[in-house]
Amino acid sequence: MAMNTQGRPTRMAENVATGGYGDTVSGSRGLEQAEPLIFERGGVENTGVDFPAPKGSKTRLGGLERTAPIGLPGLSEPETMRHYVRLSRKNYAIDLGLYPLGSCTMKHNPRLNEKVARMPGFADVHPLQPASTVQGAYEVMDVLAHWLLKLTGMPAVALSPKAGAHGEFCGMMAIRARLDADGETGRRRVLVPESAHGTNPATAVQCGFTVDEIPADAGGRVDMAALKAKLGDDVAGIMLTNPNTCGLFERDIREIADLIHGCGGYFYCDGANFNAIVGRVRPGDLGVDAMHINLHKTFSTPHGGGGPGAGPTVLSEALAPFAPLPLLMIDRDNPKGMAIMHMAEHESELDGKDLHPFGRMAAFHGQMGMFTRALTYMMSHGSDGLKQVADDAVLNANYILAGLKGVMTQAFEGHCMHEALFDDRFLKGTGVTTLDFAKAMIDEGYHPMTMYFPLVVHGAMLIEPTETESKGGLDRFIEVMESLALAAKAGETARFQAAPVHAPLKRLDETRAARQPVLRWTPAADAAE
After folding, report:
1. CB 460 within 8 A of CB 423
2. What pLDDT digit, counting tens, does each position of 205-217 carry?
3. Which intervals of the chain are annotated as region Disordered (predicted)?
């Protein structure tokens, strides 16, 4: 796989020869405004707002008052506003255009979800409020859990994990707790297909397991012969993504589950790609024991949401007793005739319930903003709408696959699921690399697809349009990608190696940037010294 080792100018004034912004006096081009660092725009000797010195008041800082300038740039309110608005315009976003990142599922987040999440009763809820004042929030969590269990065919769910990898950790810790409770402390080997998400082996190791890699067959799925050869009485389980990272459904999934259970292990399914099968396939029916669900991928909550995300983890009957604290407990038979909910924070509150939580994963109960957004998405779609989500995600990916496989090379034969995977064979002999191709997409106004991943495919280009893209948007994307592929084959190598030409900043030496990042601004006077 090619790496970019050729550093290129990144500042505007240095890029006249490559079509940069140095051809204007201001450094701007049309409505695209040049914008330096805020420290370069505002002087540290100035202040945007002046306050008179306080009169008649004594300091309460006990000698800890600041004695030197604070060193922050001073700008007026309009200057400050313009700075951040100009920076925001340099970001690519799903609200700006198609975001083809494979494996990441960058789908549109409906504004209805945002409106509900901002309702005062949800937006203002605090984790330290008395349980009696947050019964509505608890009910939202209970209804969300109900939907997740129905859609997955599983009996229990832990809502507290904050993200996908955190959900993986939850599921693998539940597996370890179950093995330990059964006296199976010698089972510490976890089988992980080589096409797995990178967090899978990392999570297994973090939970005290060793990782044994399973190769893929020629079709991009688990090599069943290799899997069978790895089975043994020390196998704790398998961590498998379905559909997998190559965008393919594991056709032998039931046999895999039976083999793992037959040797005494448990089946962890990475649920990152649940959006491809939601409403169509229930993981519980496939023999899954634990699976995290990325609410942002399947149910359209923002990535992170400006804070912690949410990665609820569903658990099988065998693992349910080991779900982490806190647990939402509901008293439906209280004397007042209404369901009263509370969070069980300690094992002492679970007496007589035959529950054995492996511990806590977070200080509080979950991310309320993510819960409300996800539930809004579920309820606004309904069961039939969620089926269509999966149908459209798969349809859109196959539409791209069909539109591009004539000019690009499909990594594996046959239909895909929610993402189309190409390799770099179509670029052979052109002098254009996967990286060059991705940079040229920036000049065309598109964020590049996921590159060089999955690692099992040379020069991989993984494209996931999601279900929220229209046919017109996909047609335009296919047209651009086809034109770039034909340009590469026509020998326009220089165009690709110079790209991106029209971006505010140009291509940089990525290897050096990763190994020698400049993380601190240095004033010019200090730099001269």
Report:
1. yes
2. 999 999 999 999 9
3. 1-28
Tens of pLDDT along 410-422? Answer: 999 999 999 999 9
DSSP string, 59-115: --STT----S--------HHHHHHHHHHHHTTS--TTTS---BTTT------HHHHH
220's tokens: 């991009």
User: Around Cβ 379, how many Cβ atoms within 10 Å?
Assistant: 14
Cβ contacts of residue 190 below 8 Å, gap of 6+? 172, 204, 209, 210, 211, 212, 235, 236, 237, 238, 239
pLDDT band at 22 (very low <50, low <70, confident <90, very high): low
Q: How far is CA 451 from the centre of its chain?
A: 15
pLDDT per residue as tens digits for the range 242-268:
999 999 999 999 999 999 999 999 999
Domain positions in the chain = 112-374
CATH assignment of 112-374, among 3.10.450.710, 3.40.50.2300, 3.40.640.10, 3.30.70.360? 3.40.640.10
Number of helices (H) and strands (E) in the chain: give both, helices first.
16, 13
**Burial class (CB within 10 angstroms; exposed 0-12, middle 13-18, buried 19+) of 397:** buried
Using an 8 Å Cβ cutoff, are 220 and 246 in contact?
Answer: yes
Sign of the Cα pseudo-torsion (252, 257, 259, 265, in order): positive
Coil, helix or strand at residue 290: strand
Prior bond to 127 cis, omega within 30?
Answer: no
Bond prior to 465 in cis (omega within 30° of 0)? no
DSSP 8-state symbol, 306: T
What are the strands, taking DSSP E only, across 332-482?
340-344, 409-410, 420-423, 450-451, 461-463
Per-residue CA distances from 402 to 51, 348, 367, 399 (Å): 64, 58, 39, 5
Contact status, residue 459 vs residue 1, Cβ threshold 8 Å: yes
Alpha helices in 263-357 (DSSP H): 295-298
